[in-house]
Amino acid sequence: MDLNKLASSIDADNLPPVEKWDPEYCGEIDIEIKRDGSWHYMGTPIGRQKLVKLFSTVLKKENDQYFLVTPVEKVGIRVVDAPFVAVLMDVHETNEGQALLFTDNVGNQFIAGKEHPIWVEIDPETKEPSPYIRVRRNLDALINRNVFYQLVDIAEQVEQNGKIELRVSSQGETFSLGKVEQ
Fold it and tell me: Tell me, what's the pLDDT at 1?
């Protein structure tokens, strides 16, 4: 498979240009995106996936705050961890090497690489890993546990300074999944 064909099959161009919009701030709205990727309004889950998908297209992050924006208004919302969750991963062998295609909980698709890096943060107290991937602009997805296990399964073990590190590659970029405790 050709990497360009794979990339062109992803329809990321239909997103509104929220990074160009700088409307007046209108206050907060009681919307929260939970760690599992579910959207809640006034404490109640938003059950209409089309509405969640629509809201996700006008999501913007400035500094550490999240907003829903239109050309004329901007409202603040809460995000517990990351606004998206990577729920699927497909491995494609291309002429240019391996490509990891991710799909998130609202249907965005993106290929891990320079524009969509993967990284893992370790909770200092529990030592639990939290893996992430950049979805677009400065918006990230938490990689769900099943997908993380898939990544670990295809990872290459590399010894460095007497420690084993797990690494995955996509589009010629290499990403660390962390060191293996022995």
Answer: 45
CB 15 within 8 A of CB 57: yes
Judged on CB neighbours under 10 Å (0-12, 13-18, 19+), 34 is: middle
Per run of 10 residues, the mean pLDDT along the chain (length 182 residues) is 46 77 92 96 92 91 94 93 97 92 95 97 92 96 97 94 92 92 68
Longest dimension (CA), the chain: 56
**CATH classification number, 83-177, choose in 2.30.270.10, 3.90.198.10, 1.10.1240.10, 3.40.50.720:** 2.30.270.10
What are the b/e assignments for 75-86, b being 16+ CB within 10 Å? bebebebbbbbb
> pLDDT at position 15, please?
85
